[in-house]
């Protein structure tokens, strides 16, 4: 076993999930999952005295509800209804599938994390080599600063310049490496903000990966013109035209509405085309387009047939006119003092 991988698995189990002796830890995977990652987490859970269960299944043909026809729905649901922890390493993710919805609705103690397409290098970079406790303090401070602001502006060297109002009634999610409480958790290193609907104005330029339809960096930056939170123009290279057609293919005006913005703050994340990692690149911002859940934006959310995400690298951010980040570097003094060690690349 790779000792760096085992250390990362230990951090996931001990520091992030705070797994206790006697807890049931379900680890799901499909035939395209990384077996070494699954085994390392299984062994870490066993080492702390938990009861780990590895569940491997044939790779479903779709994700979410589209995976249902290929799942043992009742058997998998039954197991998850009694689990304390569920860590998902599936390639075709089960997030929003029927077993997921049943477990989240009925198992009020469940702590869940979706780690799609995790391999050894990704596990080591984004979990094993991250100072979780220090990063948590920094991210919580940024979250509070953002929640208490009324206005946010974001620019990038690629030409992004967008502003919006912050809606205090919308949920600001901070995935800061604490999955010790029941709920849905994601990989460490992202703060998600749902702006006040209808207030986003300016230009958003994706110079990192865009998923879907690509799952990679576009051939040229994709520029979105935004008026009142709606995309009115898409320009760039050939991929920009493909992206516009992708949005149009849903025949749903909701797919031209901006959904959310997120800060990327994982010190180990690099641009790979895997959106789970890319949207956590330090100093980036990520924009979601389309669907927003009622949980994130009560009471109704934002309806749309689907959702996609794009990355804006090296972001500068102002909150109520005060700059806190300059091209990916934290410049506000109090926040800068909390920044964890960053790798030299």
Automatic annotation (TrEMBL):
Keyword Metal-binding: yes
Superkingdom of the organism of origin: Bacteria
Coiled coil: none
Molecular function as annotated in GO: metal ion binding
Pfam families: NicX (PF26233)
UniProt KW keywords: Metal-binding
InterPro entries: M29_Exopeptidase, M29_N-terminal, NicX
PANTHER family associated with the record: AMINOPEPTIDASE, BLL6088 PROTEIN
Protein name per the record: Leucyl aminopeptidase
UniProt lineage: Bacteria, Bacillati, Bacillota, Clostridia, Eubacteriales
């Amino acid at each position: 076993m790779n000792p760096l991988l085992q250390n990362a698995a230990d951090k996931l189990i001990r520091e992030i999930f705070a797994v206790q002796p006697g807890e049931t830890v379900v680890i799901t995977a499909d035939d395209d999952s990384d077996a070494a990652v699954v085994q390392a987490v299984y062994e870490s859970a066993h080492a702390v005295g938990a009861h780990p269960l590895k569940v491997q299944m044939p790779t479903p043909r779709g994700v979410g509800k589209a995976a249902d026809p290929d799942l043992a729905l009742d058997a998998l649901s039954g197991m998850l209804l009694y689990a304390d922890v569920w860590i998902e390493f599936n390639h075709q993710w089960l997030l929003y599938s029927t077993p997921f919805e049943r477990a989240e609705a009925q198992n009020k103690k469940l702590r869940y994390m979706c780690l799609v397409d995790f391999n050894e290098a990704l596990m080591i970079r984004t979990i094993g080599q991250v100072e979780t406790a220090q990063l948590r303090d920094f991210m919580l401070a940024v979250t509070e600063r953002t929640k208490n602001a009324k206005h946010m502006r974001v620019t990038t060297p690629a030409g992004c310049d967008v502003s919006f109002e912050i809606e205090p009634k919308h949920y600001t999610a901070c995935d800061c490496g604490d999955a010790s409480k029941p709920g849905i958790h994601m990989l460490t290193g992202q703060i998600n903000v749902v702006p006040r609907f209808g207030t986003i104005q300016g230009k958003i330029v994706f110079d990192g990966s865009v998923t879907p339809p690509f799952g990679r960096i576009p051939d040229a930056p994709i520029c979105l013109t935004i008026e009142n939170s709606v995309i009115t123009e898409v320009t760039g290279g050939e991929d920009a035209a493909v992206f516009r057609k992708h949005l149009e293919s849903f025949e749903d005006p909701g797919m031209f509405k901006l959904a959310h913005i997120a800060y990327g703050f994982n010190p180990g994340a690099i641009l790979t085309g895997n959106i789970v990692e890319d949207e956590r690149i330090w100093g980036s911002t990520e924009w979601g387009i389309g669907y927003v859940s009622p949980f994130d934006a009560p009471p109704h959310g934002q309806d749309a047939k689907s959702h996609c995400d794009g990355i804006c690298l090296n972001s500068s951010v102002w909150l109520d006119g005060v700059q806190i980040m300059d091209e990916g570097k934290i410049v506000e003094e109090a926040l800068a003092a909390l920044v964890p060690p960053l790798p030299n690349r």
